[in-house]
Amino acid sequence: MRVALMITCINDALYPSTGKAVVRLLRRLGVEVDFPQAQTCCGQPMVNTGYLDEAVPVVRTFVDAFAGYDAVVTPSGSCAGSARHQHSIVARRSGDEALERAVAEVAPTVYELSEFLVDVLGVTDVGAYYPHRVTYHPTCHSLRMLGVGDRPRRLLEAVRGIRLVDLPGADQCCGFGGTFAVKNADTSIAMGADKARHIRETGAEIVVAGDNSCLTHIGGLLSRQRSGIRTVHLAEILASTEQSAVEEVLTR
Amino acid sequence: MSGTFVGMPAFPEAAREALADSQLRHNLAHATGTIRAKRAKVVAEVEDWEELRLVGAAVKERALLDLETQLVRLEETLTANGATVHWARDATEANAIVASIAKAHEAQEVVKVKSMVTQEIGLNEALAEEGIAAWETDLAELIVQLGDDLPSHILVPAIHRNRAEIREIFRSKMGAAGRPAPADLTDEPAVLAAAAREHLREKFLRAKVGVSGANFAIAETGTLVVVESEGNGRMCLTLPEVLVSVVGIEKVVSRWEDLGPMLRLLPRSSTGERMNPYTSTWSGVTPGDGPQEVHVVLLDNGRTRALADEVGRQALRCIRCSACLNVCPVYERTGGHAYGSVYPGPIGAILNPLLKGVGHDDQIDSLPYASSLCGACFEVCPVRIDIPSVLVDQRAQVVDAHRGGVPKPEAAAMKGAAYVLGRSRRLSALERFTGLGMRFARRFGPAAWIGARDLPDAPAESFRAWWLRTNGGRNDGGRKGDGTDD
Amino acid sequence: MTDARTEILARVREALAGSTVELPETSAPRDLAPVATPEVVELFAERVADYRAVVERCGTEELEERIAAALPAGEVVVPPGLSIGVAGAIVDNGALTAAELDQIAAVVTEARVGIAETGTIVLDHTPDQGRRAISLVPDTHICIIREDQLVADVPDAIALLDPARPQTWISGPSATSDIELDRVEGVHGPRTLHVLITPPRKVTS
């Protein structure tokens, strides 16, 4: 099986540790991924702001980079959703039939990380160890656009040492929403403030999610509030082992 | 980035004001939370709910895709049943028709069933100009009308008011409109409802003309359907001599049997009940029973514009249940007034631009952006309107309407991003400056972000650079034994 | 200038021109089940009571007594075709005005169909139920429904009902949730709904 890693633009630039965690995790599970150097972004920032023409070259780059793989795995529900549900809209708009065909081929091969682990590799216990009190925020696009269901939760429940605590109002949006966070900043912050309050109420040290974009917003609020609660991507928890936990303590 | 983005001004500013009103936030959170729980409970009782949603969508879609035939059929059957059918291209024409019917009967007042469409066309104001008083008889509409307020929810227009505020409105305003509120009025909901009963009863008993909308209009049988709770609808539909119903052309369904799935879907989605207390159906005139003069005004007012939009067309399936409002995290915090329309919430954010068109009004253009695209609305919609997809499509229409001329900062930024993201080497060149960029953003970034949210620290190198340097972690100095340095 | 009808229909035609119109199938998702099993009767009674209506099951011979017991003080109106006698009742002749009906305390009617799943009674205003106004204005509605008139769910009822008749679907007493979404019984329609479920009508062959 030829598997490509789609890192996403935000992980590439701001959260390389998430990408490294995916590589480490999949390697541990016996899967070597390619990293097609031609990749850039899924184009969602443009599509969701209404700039469909501007998204066309980005989608073209995307399908060129990921054509021919059996599976494309990405640590983002939102970007996977964009590739699976929005690329066809952009392609249709471009009037380029070759692009439409390419999108139709590539889009179904894109998997969000928890889908890839549970559905493609068929594992829920990935042999991780993470001795922390953690609460899980299901991001909207993973939950409702992709329908990942309880896959991330099942993966987390199998992690040794973890204390998973329920997040009240978990399925409520955190208020990030891409450019919504800036265009409608007041509403976005009001939504985020409620999410942050729910997270603090759980007493968790860590809030985990499958999208670093949402975690940037949530973490930004938690940090400004000096809550001491850290945001961590799902991949990083699943990649953790007893050895990495010891090393983490040693390097503190 | 600055405040001149396309779609920026209207909703965000209205929302800011609403967000500052802590009483409003409290009233809304309480009310939407209550109704969400009620809906979830009764929906869970229906085993085939998801299948039922598909049927509901198909019933409406079938009629919309065949609308000309259905409307002509509806006109025929209504006429055969003794009703008079009128057609109105817009609000002005519809209002004039209703006013002329009232005048023909020398009516100085009409009693009204709660109806979204008559609010959409501003019927009350138009009738007032003709010297005709239009009395709202639904409790929430009465609260809004007496309080000289605006509706903020499709189902519960006074959702933004709590019991204490309602008591105050009744005490100070009922007297001027008719029978005053009793002196010992408390803020108990049952007591307030009883005061409304007394106040409105004299109006029902003397009214000559009733005005309604319709939840469904059945083409095959010439039947109109009104779904309600309080019995004010029955009063208006039964007691007056003359009944005028203003019906948007999208309300048509083909067959009598289509009512089955719709009446299973609507109350559970709307009030969170298995069935609403009262549903009235009537097919024209019934001799010796109810109004003996029945009019139906078929209204366009932008609906054909929406119908022409292949993506947005599905919004015309809407049965005005308001489930999307109740689950919307944006609506829950801003309330309905921020949307600047009688149709607020997620459905309003697509319906208003579809009915009125984009590109000529900043307020309308801001509505498709009033969403985080979380998708909760689509999940609950009983007729499966994919609101997030329509929102994104409407955003594209807003952007397209503003293309040409000097690009606004956002458009320039998107063009720049398209250039950078079109080629990975451009992106990788730019990523060398991520650290600098984040340091800059922390000091000079958009206040909209950094006002309340910290930014993350930039990493020493991008993932892409790390992969190249270490061959995907394989040559990374053996740290951690598994090939990554994290 | 073209008239509104012509123009609206033309706009509709134009709006749909070029769309591939494949009309979706809209069949009901389940088979109709119009037979009143004991479970259906039980569910109906339970669901009507959920709306805080009064529900009683009684034999035909007890009916007069139960109605008398349920009637409030004041006058009572009955439709012209009511199959059971109500002592002292005013029989509606179609001439009572709304204001006159407002002075009457109660109404006794029969019904066309009852829906178990939703606890709904449907009147179609034939002479055993009377015109719409008499079951609306008085504050107490006593409604008699036979077990053989009960169906499982809404589509079953739709299949039995005649759309040419005016219909009133009643699910509990009048209610509102307009104040803080708190359900309150009793606004404009009858504030008391009293439902009497009687055995099936005997078929003489």
Automatic annotation (TrEMBL), chain A:
Please state every residue range assigned to the domain named Cysteine-rich: 3-80, 134-218
| Signal sequence range | none
Instruction: Record the organism.
Output: Nocardioides albus
Q: Which Pfam families match?
A: CCG
Matching InterPro entries, A to Z? Cys_rich_dom
Provide one Gene Ontology cellular component: cytosol
State the protein's name.
L-lactate dehydrogenase complex protein LldE
**Any GO MF annotation of the entry:** oxidoreductase activity
From TrEMBL, chain B:
UniProt KW keywords = 4Fe-4S, Electron transport, Iron, Iron-sulfur, Metal-binding, Repeat, Transport
Question: What is this protein called in UniProt?
Answer: L-lactate dehydrogenase complex protein LldF
* Source organism of this protein record: Nocardioides albus
Q: Name one Pfam family in it.
A: Fer4_8
- Where the record annotates domain LUD, the positions are 73-299
| Coiled coil regions in record | none
Q: Which InterPro entries match?
A: 4Fe4S_Fe-S-bd (IPR017896), 4Fe4S_Fe_S_CS (IPR017900), FTHF_cligase-like_sf (IPR024185), Helical_ferredxn (IPR009051), LUD_dom (IPR003741), LutB/LldF (IPR004452), NagB/RpiA_transferase-like (IPR037171)
Q: Where are the transmembrane segments?
A: none
Automatic annotation (TrEMBL), chain C:
Gene3D superfamilies reported for this sequence: NagB/RpiA/CoA transferase-like (3.40.50.10420)
Q: Which residues form the LUD domain?
A: 97-197
Q: Which InterPro entries match?
A: FTHF_cligase-like_sf, LUD_dom, NagB/RpiA_transferase-like
PANTHER family of this UniProt entry?
LACTATE UTILIZATION PROTEIN C
Q: What is the protein's given name?
A: L-lactate dehydrogenase complex protein LldG
